[in-house]
């Protein structure tokens, strides 16, 4: 590129750059440096820019505009200036106006995660808005007072009360900007809602959905509004109440939102204390229940599914009259309820995670022997529950330390050695993969955990963080001394213990694996072995909690078939 074009490129960024060309290189660098500091641009960009200016003034043709990061109120663009790729301006401080310049078609997902602004101006060419443009890294909506969209934009629009996107020809409320409203009556053409559409709407008490809306998820108002009522039109087919957990924290609500449902709605209806959804097969799904008294709760006989969190927090609920058609109980359906005994009907085929967790008065459970799936933590923290029986009086279920599994499925229900050899490792690989995905989201220390299934070798490789904390001063001292000498690749032994899985070097303990890892492995323990266990990473001192000298990182080991036990079972 010619010097003139390069100078013009810099003129966009530094108005004085063209005038500075007549100065010495030293003076020019000083002028640019001062200009950069006023815009709070980082040191890396300062040095990079000064080097390019020096090359321009010396006649170098090596540097082009593609090497120059372009800034516009702190924005970083792609070389063609059609994509916003990042934000470096204003050191995280809130600015009054952030204007996306003309020609920008896309804002990358993380580009504006650190940007704070009162007003956002979008160009007519913009087609895609990054995930974290209006949402903080923690998932909570940013406090934005105004969003303007230039005329003729085909993908976004705004008015005095809201900012909208157009999705497959349907209008979606991305953000309600008038946070003073107490009643929101959706415009007739607004039928979709973004996750943080009602952020900072603390005054909102009532939402009237527009006719044509087919889906509404109550969780979108969980963080901000004190909404007491939602009016549901005849067109809504899928209604989702607030989940039992929000951002990892259990929400037990004393007062649930009141729903006023159009009598002409053929898909959602209210009966007695419950709201139901009509499924395609004509049976019902119980979405939520408002019963707060003691004694049995009444459920319609046509009910086949009890939905997620439907009875969550109903600690006065002592008993349920179970419908004979019931076949599925979803996640956290009876979390922290007052149930004292459970006898499920024979048609139930699935019980999801924490369905009956923290039922602290629960003392007896009878499940159908034909149950096809039960989550291991379905009865977690049910402190007075000691055993789970089956309706055929056979030992079908194993229950220990809050973990339940269907023993028949893994031990006596597999017909042949060939079947076991084919299924055990692949099934366990899937179980561990699902567990890692859930656990690593909930616990920051485990976000580096990995499960690798080697199909040809029928081997599962597990890499998992482990805990060195202990209340025992003697064991703690032993772990510190041993960890000081630890190296990556050092062999370790993993042994089950009361507090988890003890990790040892020789006879000395260096920590424990998470007790939660033991849970998904329980049904498989007779058929697998652990091998090749070693230290796979050591946490850098700078990243250790409290600057501890002895903190390690993770352990790796292989899970393989224990063919001797499989043969013994088959015999």
Supply the key terms.
40 strands, alpha/beta, 571 residues, 18% helix
What's this entry about, in short?
The protein is an alpha/beta fold.
Please give a structural write-up.
The protein is of the alpha/beta class. Helix content is 18%, strand content 30%. It contains nine helices and 40 strands. A seven-stranded mixed sheet has the order 20-21-22-24-26-28-30, with no helix packed on it. Strand 17 and strand 18 form a beta hairpin. Helix 3 (25-38) packs antiparallel against helix 4. The longest helix has 26 residues, at 417-442. It starts with a helix and ends with a helix. The relative contact order is 0.04. The model is unreliable at 9-29, 36-44, 59-71, 243-254, 408-421, 542-550 and 565-571 (pLDDT under 50).
């Amino acid at each position: 590129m010619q010097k003139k074009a390069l100078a013009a490129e810099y003129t966009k960024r530094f108005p004085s750059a063209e005038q500075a060309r007549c100065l010495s290189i030293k003076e020019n660098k000083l002028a640019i440096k001062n200009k950069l500091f006023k815009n709070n641009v980082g040191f890396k960009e300062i040095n990079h820019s000064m080097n390019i200016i020096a090359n321009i003034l010396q006649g170098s043709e090596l540097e082009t505009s593609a090497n120059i990061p372009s800034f516009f109120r702190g924005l970083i663009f792609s070389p063609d200036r059609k994509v916003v790729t990042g934000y470096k301006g204003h050191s995280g401080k809130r600015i009054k106006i952030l204007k996306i310049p003309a020609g920008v078609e896309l804002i990358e997902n993380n580009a504006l995660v650190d940007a704070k602004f009162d007003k956002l101006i979008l160009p007519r060419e913009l087609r895609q808005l990054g995930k974290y443009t209006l949402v903080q890294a923690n998932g909570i909506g940013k406090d934005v007072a105004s969003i303007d969209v230039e005329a003729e934009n085909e993908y976004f629009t705004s008015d005095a009360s809201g900012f909208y996107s157009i999705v497959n020809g349907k209008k979606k409320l991305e953000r309600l900007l008038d946070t003073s409203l107490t009643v929101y009556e959706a415009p007739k053409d607004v039928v979709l809602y973004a996750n943080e559409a009602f952020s900072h709407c603390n005054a909102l008490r009532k939402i009237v959905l527009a006719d044509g809306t087919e889906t509404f998820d109550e969780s979108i108002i969980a963080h901000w509004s004190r909404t007491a009522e939602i009016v549901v039109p005849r067109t809504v087919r899928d209604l989702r109440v607030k989940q039992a957990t929000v951002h990892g924290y259990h929400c037990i609500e004393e007062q649930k939102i009141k729903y006023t449902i159009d009598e002409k709605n053929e898909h959602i209806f209210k009966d007695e204390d419950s709201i139901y959804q009509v499924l395609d097969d004509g049976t019902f799904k119980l979405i939520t229940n408002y019963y707060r008294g003691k004694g049995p709760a009444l459920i319609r006989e046509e009910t086949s599914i009890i939905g997620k969190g439907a009875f969550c927090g109903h600690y006065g609920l002592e008993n349920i009259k179970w419908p004979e058609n019931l076949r599925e109980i979803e996640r956290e359906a009876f979390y922290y309820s007052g149930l004292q005994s459970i006898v499920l009907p024979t048609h139930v085929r699935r019980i999801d995670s924490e369905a009956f967790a923290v039922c602290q008065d629960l003392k007896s459970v009878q499940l159908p022997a034909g149950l096809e799936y039960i989550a291991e933590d379905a009865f977690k923290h049910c402190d007075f529950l000691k055993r789970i029986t089956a309706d055929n009086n056979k030992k079908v279920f194993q229950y220990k330390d809050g973990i339940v599994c269907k023993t028949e499925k893994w031990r006596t229900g597999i017909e042949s050695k060939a079947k076991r050899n084919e299924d055990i490792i692949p099934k366990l690989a899937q179980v561990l993969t699902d567990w890692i995905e859930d656990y690593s989201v909930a616990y920051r220390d485990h976000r580096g955990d990995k499960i690798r299934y080697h199909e040809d070798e029928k081997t599962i490789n597990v890499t998992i963080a482990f805990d060195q904390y202990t209340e025992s001063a003697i064991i703690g001292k032993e772990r510190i001394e041993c960890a000081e000498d630890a190296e990556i690749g050092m062999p370790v032994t993993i042994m089950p213990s009361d507090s988890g899985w003890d990790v040892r070097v020789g006879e000395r303990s260096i920590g424990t694996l998470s007790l939660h890892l033991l849970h998904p492995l329980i049904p498989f323990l007779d058929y697998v072995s652990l091998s090749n266990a070693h230290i796979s990473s050591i946490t850098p001192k700078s990243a250790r909690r409290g600057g501890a000298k002895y903190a390690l990182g993770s352990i790796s080991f292989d899970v393989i078939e224990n063919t001797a036990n499989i043969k013994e079972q088959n015999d």
